[in-house]
Amino acid sequence: MTTPDASDRITALRRQLGRTGIWSTPPDAMGVDARDLAATVEQYGFGSLWLGGSHMAPDAFTQLVALLDGSTKLIVGTGIASIWGREPSDMRQGADTLSKGFPGRFILGLGVAHRPAVESLGRSYAKPYSAMERYLEEMDHPAGHPGAGPGEAPADAPGDRAVRVLAALGPRMLELSRDEADGAHPYFSPVDHTSFARQVLGPDKLLIPEQAVVLAEDAEPARAAARAYAQRYLEMPNYTSNLRRFGFGDPDIGGGGSDRLIDAIIPHGPAVIAERVRQHLAAGADTVLLQPVGPDGRFAFGDLGPLAEALSGL
Question: pTM of the entire structure?
Fold first, then answer.
C-alpha cells in the first residue's frame, strides 16, 4: 500500500518529469561527455534522462553522478539496471545513496534482462518473475539490518527508499510493479500496451514508457533506420511475446519487422512523433521517454534539438 509520504513523493515526481524525457545509450559509448549530455537534455526542456545498459560495472552508480552534477533539476533513471548485476543490498545502497544525495532526482529502473545475457553469466533464466520477486524482497529485508531477526529485517516504508520502477511488459510483472514498486518502465511496446499497463497499475503508480523515434520524414530511409535499431529486439522473446499480445504475428516480427510493426513501435517524422507522444499520454503514461534513432540504428545525439522542436507544441 502507498503511504502518504510515498504518494506525495510520486506526485512531486510526476510534476518534475514533465511530458517527455530522453532514453539514451551510455554517453561514453557514443563519445559524449556525461555532463554535456545531461546539460543538453535539460537545455532542450526534457524532464528526465534515462541511461540504457545493464549497469553492471562496479562504478555504475558513480557514473550516474556526472549526469546529476551536469544538470540542475533533471531526473536521472536507470533503464534498466539488471538484477543479475549486483547483490540486492548493493543495489539498494547505490540507489539510496543517489536518492539521498540528489533528492527527488533519481529513479531506479530494475529489470530481469534477457536469457542470453543472464546465461552468459552462468545464471539460470528459468523463472525470471520469481527472481525479481525474491530480489525485491531481499532489497527491502537486508540481512543484518539493525533490529532484524535472524537473517531478516523489517521492511522500510516506500518513502524511505529510492523510487523504483520495473521493466514490465506482461501482466504478472506489471502487477509486481504495482504491488512492490512505484510503477513500470516498458520498452519497445505499442500505445495499446500503455493503455493495458495503466489498467493493471491503477492510477497511483508511475508509468514511463520508452518510445524510439526517427526524425526523418521519408518513409524508406526512416524505416531502414528503425529496422537497424529494432533488429536485436525482434530476436528477444520478452519483446516478441509482448508484441503478440497486441496483435502482431510471425509475418510482422520476421524479416526485420513489417511496415505495420515498425511504424507502430518506431514512428518517423516530427508530426507523427508528436502525435504518438500524445497517444501515449492519453493512454495513461505519466511521461514518455524518447530515444532518437539515427540512420545506423543508434542513439542520435545531434537530433535532440530538432526533436525538442518537434515536440514544442505538446
Answer: 0.93
Alpha-carbon 189 to chain mean position: 12
**How far is it, in rounded angstroms, from Cα 75 to Cα 289?**
12
Tally of domains in the chain = 1
- Residue 54: which pLDDT band, with cuts at 50, 70 and 90? confident
Classify the phi-psi angles of 143: left when phi > 0, otherwise alpha if psi is within -120 to 50, otherwise beta.
Answer: beta
Q: Nine-digit cell at 1?
A: 500500500
Q: Give the up-direction half-sphere exposure of residue 186: CA atoms within 13 A in the CB hemisphere.
A: 32
CATH number of 108's domain: 3.20.20.30
Whole-number Å distance between alpha carbons of 234 and 98: 34
For residues 170 and 71, give the distance between their C-alpha atoms in angstroms, rounded to a whole number: 34
291 forms beta bridges with 212
Q: How far apart are CA 95 and CA 100, in angstroms?
A: 9
Q: In this predicted model, what pLDDT tens digit does every residue of 151-201 receive, in sequence order? A: 444 455 566 799 999 999 999 999 999 999 999 999 999 999 999 999 999
Quick one: three-class SS letters along 126-144?
Answer: CCHHHHHHHHHHHHHCCCC
Q: What are the beta bridge partners of residue 211?
A: 290
How many residues appear in the chain? 314
Domain that holds residue 220: 4-310
What distance in Å separates the CA atoms of residue 267 and residue 261, rounded to the nearest whole number?
A: 10
